[in-house]
Amino acid sequence: MCCDYNSTLKKPFAKHTGKDATYTLKKELIDQLQVIYYRLSGDLDVQLGKLSDNQRTSILLKLTEEIQACTAGFHNRVNAIVTSFEGVASLAQLLTQVRQSLVEKTAARLTNEVHATNRVTVIASTAGFGVKPTLLGDIHPGRLTDEEIQKALQETFESEYVPFNLPILLCDQLRGILASVGYHGRHADSYDINDSKTIAMVIEHCLTDSTENTAALEKSKAGYTKYFVIDEDVYDKEKDEYQTYIRDVNWPKIQKLFLAALGREKYFVKEPTMPTLYWYALYHTTEETLVETRRIIEESISKNQYQAFNRITALKSSDPHLYRAISEILVEKINIHQLIAAFYASDIHRDLINIAEVMTIVLEKCNASDLAKELSEKITTGDFAGTNGFYYLMVALNNAALENAADSVKTISALAVTLIEKCSASDLAKGLSEKITAGDAAGTNGFYWLIAALDNAASKNAADSVKTISALAVTLIKKCNASDLAKGLSEKRTAADFAGTNGFYRLIAALNNAAFKNAADSVKTISALAVTLIEKCDASDLAKGLSEKRTTGDDAGTHGFYCLMAALNNATSTNAADSVKTISALAVTLIEKCDASDLAKGLSEKKTTGDFAGTNGFYWLIAALNNAASKNAADSVKTISALAVTLIEKCNTSDLAKELSEKITTGNFAGTNGFYWLIAALDNAASKNAADSVKTISALAVTLIEKCNASDLAKGLSEKRIVGDDAGTHGFYWLMEAVINVIKIKDVESTQIACSLLFRLLGKLKKESLPVDVQAIFLKHKTVLQDSLKAYLSQIDSVLQLKAVSCTDTMLGVLIDHQVHFIKKPQSNTRLLVDSCIFKKSPIDRIKYISIQLSKKKEKYYLELNSFFPRNKKLVNTKLKTLEGILKLTNDIIDMKKGVIDYSVFQNDMKKIIDDAQENKFLIQDDKKINELFTALDQAICSLSSAASPTSHAPSPTPMDDANVSPRRQ
Fold first, then answer.
1. Whether the Cβ atoms of residue 229 and residue 250 lie closer than 8 Å to each other
2. What is the spatial distance between Cα 713 and Cα 753, in angstroms, rounded to a whole number?
3. Each residue's pLDDT tens digit, 624-678
4. Do 137 and 10 belong to one domain?
5. Within a domain: 499
6. Helix ranges restricted to H, 549-673
7. Among 365, 450, 583, 828, which residue is least crowded by beta carbons within 10 Å?
8. Beta strands 228-236 and 241-249: pairing type?
9. CB 247 within 8 A of CB 229
């Protein structure tokens, strides 16, 4: 049957129950699968009722969900399906299903992992929550601890398994049961009488633990109708007569009957009292509720407590008529003064939320100026000196967010929006800016608590509350003027753990919390709010507000700029590409808005305590890049690199190098800095053969190399990690590792890119700036690098650049001159290649080089001439004079500038030297070096001359063969 539903299931079923299956509880599993088969086949319809198409599909879906996984997990799902078949014949059984449903709800909130879900049912069973475990024999405990499960179950049952909520839960459970006997909600026409009787019979069974009522119902013809909503005397046009229609189950009545049944069957230890007007309204008539409303109002005013009004606004949708009637009484009996007094008296606890619900109703009768005036009145003495109504409203919102009470967040936010729309911008800003002057919350104001509420909602991963509070904040931002807004959000808390923080800080902390929770929707919502704020505020106010540092706790030293980059890092640590894009876009908006010096200052401030002491915004930006590279997230690598380039281009050189060099001083990453993680990111990309990321990160590194000076680069990249498996490593180490990785995997393009980055860096650094051990890292790998080095040097078009980077005092020059063979030569093959490249591109340099060698030959001729017995003194003297003439002419050429020599003059001078030499029997063409020099002189004169191209001159020396100076492969 399942295979008909899904043809791919034969193998999984064979794995779980086939002859080769080794599962310990295979027999029990097969027995339960047979029960499911009989149920799906209709063999149990008499006992359990016929399945609807939806119910049948639901069973098949649940049965085949993750069927490829382990057999124990499959058995868990099978057990849960069979358990759901159990019929309900009494109130006790229905209560058991309610408890089972609450346990399943708790499990779903904690995990979606099947073994952990089963563990929740086992713990609930042993802890006395009145349910059966799904599968006792499951050897896999899941990832949740027993303490986590116990706590979650306790919270669920304490909040939901309570007297006045139980009837609602029982009705919810009953709806599912009635679906199997033909109930499908409100009927457009009328339920069939027989179906209605069956539905009524099930309801009757569920309302008692005895069977006495069943017989009485069967004897009464009209007994079943008391459970339904009946429309009598409805005219039927087709039949031209009046009909009685059975429209729906009368759920409000069933709810009350359940409450009565629970009391009658002694389920309550003592008679429960109605805790709130909301609950009272659910179980009483409108008239009774309105009488109770008047009594509660009188009591609330006298005690200045409003707990009884909790959730009162929920009646707006469930019973609009009753809600309007209660509202009229509230407006008549309570004024804004009393509610403000209640705000003051309530301290900071849950009753504020209830007062906010009442205020939502009462506010409508106040005019704007009176409202602002009353809400702005401050307490002048005691622990809450400086606070006003605006302050407590936002504190109420924060408390609701802190307790993850989404409904209360909506209620208070709606009230706040009403206030914002009603009050003038100046009154609003002034009222929200008033600070409490004493206690742990000293320095905070309404603006602070509004954003703190957002931060707390994000920390609870409460996406709905984040949206609600953000929408409220946007409304406020649009209403207030920029300076009032910046001033209000910049006020700092001066006491307790969050001392030093302000509204700007809490806003970006909220973003960081959302990123940490991998809540992409919340990241987008908060980022959009932040962009709105950035666009509204002045650049200097914005930078100042975001730069204020937290002064206490584990996060001392952090600020808004820091939290922004930490958020980016958290997004990459969970590989949340959308969040990376969102946060990066926000960061770019901020970078473009702020002044370079303010930006550098803000991003450079270091965390001073905790695990990441010593880190700053620059550090986390590059750490985020490394995270993205380590997860092979090419899109995120591009996004973060683009952000980093924007920042590099904005900041000045000294600020950039200094802040990227700041080291973390504690924890597993102690000693690392921004330079370290940039190159570690490159190595991670290389090790994963991520060519696009290698290209992107290398381009970023080149931008940084070009921006920073050589000494700062050398220092930053030399800093060593001091703990962990990678202790002793530094940026130079990881750069060499990255190069080796791309060479090993034989990725030609990545090799060229990574090696080009390496050689560009070495060409910038002076050899004395690097410790000997760092130099050794590159020198020992010359054999591996030499092909790429030759290619790099050969493609440098500028002679000046080639000379500069290959100079013997650069680290690249040291690498060029390094020889790997035991037998050392006067020059390394790589240096010969460099010289060859220079000679090809610059004849003057070639002349200089050869003339140096000929000068040594001149010294040799002097020695021969002055020796005691020269073999041919005249010939030696001729050679010497010829050589001196050539060198004099050479020096003249070297000193000349382009366009100042006449080629014919050069020819005459050269011809005279050659003729004199030949007359004295010195055959110049036999001297290879002089021939080389003549060729070079000919090319140089051509480039310096303003005359036509040169003609050949005697003795037509052979041009130097480039192969003669090409280095051999080392």
1. yes
2. 19
3. 999 999 999 999 999 999 999 999 999 988 889 999 999 999 889 999 999 999 9
4. yes
5. no
6. 560-573, 577-593, 596-604, 617-630, 634-650, 653-660
7. 365
8. antiparallel
9. yes
948-954 LR contacts (CB < 8 Å, sep 24+)? 948/903, 950/903, 950/907, 951/907, 953/907, 953/910, 953/911, 953/914, 954/911, 954/914
**CB of 901 closer than 8 Å to CB of 944:** yes
Q: 220 and 311, same structural domain?
A: no
Q: How many domains does the chain have?
A: 4
State the residue for tokens 């973060």: 640
Residue 627 lies inside a defined structural domain of this protein: no
Q: Which two tokens stand for residue 502?
A: 């302000």
Coil vs helix vs strand at 155: helix
Structure token digits, residue 227: 């459970």
Which of these three, 264, 286, 307, is where a domain ends?
264
In a domain, 199, yes or no: yes
Same domain (yes/no): 118, 181: no
- Distance (Å, rounded) from C-alpha 686 to C-alpha 270? 71
The predicted pLDDT at position 198 comes to 83
| Residue 309 to residue 327: CA distance in whole angstroms | 11
The values of phi and psi at residue 474, to 5°, are: -65, -40
10 Å CB burial of residue 562 (0-12, 13-18, 19+) is: buried
Question: Tokens representing 418?
Answer: 């009403």
312, 198: one domain: no
Query: The tokens of 383 are what?
Result: 């622990």
Q: Is residue 781 part of a domain?
A: no
pTM of the model: 0.69
pLDDT in tens, 318-367: 888 998 898 888 888 887 877 877 766 655 455 777 888 888 888 877 78
**Rounded Cα gap, residues 444 and 489, in angstroms:** 10
Centroid of chain to Cα 26: 44
Per DSSP, what are the bridge partners of residue 249? 228
To the nearest 5 percent, what fractions of the chain are helix, strand and coil?
A: 70, 0, 30
Q: CA–CA distance from 129 to each of 177, 208, 267, 505 (Å)?
A: 22, 21, 15, 44
Chosen domain end from 318, 339, 366: 366
Please, what is the angle between helix 520-536 and helix 463-479, to 10°? 10
SS3 of residue 333 by DSSP = helix
The whole domain housing 324 covers 274-366
Give the type of residue at 236. D
